[in-house]
Amino acid sequence: MAYKISDSCIACGTCQPECPVDAITEGDIYVIDPDTCIDCGTCAAVCPVEAIDPE
């Protein structure tokens, strides 16, 4: 099960450097590649707006 970033993402960039497998892509709303995500939850733990949840 991969994590997913919701529309409440503010594109702050906090999550991207925390991902150990570089599964997060920058954009207006950041996107997590479900095939690369290892379900570690590190990104969700650092998100200031709680926009990242398990899919």
List keywords for this structure.
two-stranded antiparallel sheet; 1 helix; 9% helix; two-stranded antiparallel ribbon; 55 residues; globular; mainly beta; Alpha-Beta Plaits
Textual characterization of the structure:
This protein is mainly β and 55 residues long. It has one domain: Alpha-Beta Plaits, CATH 3.30.70.20. 9% of the residues lie in helices and 18% in strands. It has a two-stranded antiparallel ribbon. The protein has a two-stranded antiparallel sheet with strand order 2-3. It is globular and about 25 Å long. The mean pLDDT is 97.
Detail the topology: elements first, then pairings.
Blueprint: E1 3-5, E2 24-25, E3 31-32, H1 42-46, E4 52-54
Antiparallel strand pairs: 1-4, 2-3
CATH third-level topology = Alpha-Beta Plaits
What is the H/E string? EEEHE
* SS-based class: mainly beta
* β-strand amount: 15-25%
Neighbour order of strands in the largest sheet: 1-4
Report Rg.
Answer: 9 Å
Basic shape: globular
Q: What is the count of structural domains?
A: 1
N-to-C CA distance: 6 Å
Q: In CATH, what is the class?
A: Alpha Beta
What value does the average pLDDT take? Answer: 97
Helix content estimate: under 10%
Largest sheet: 2 strands, antiparallel
Number of strands: 4
Residue windows where pLDDT falls under 50 for at least 5 positions: none
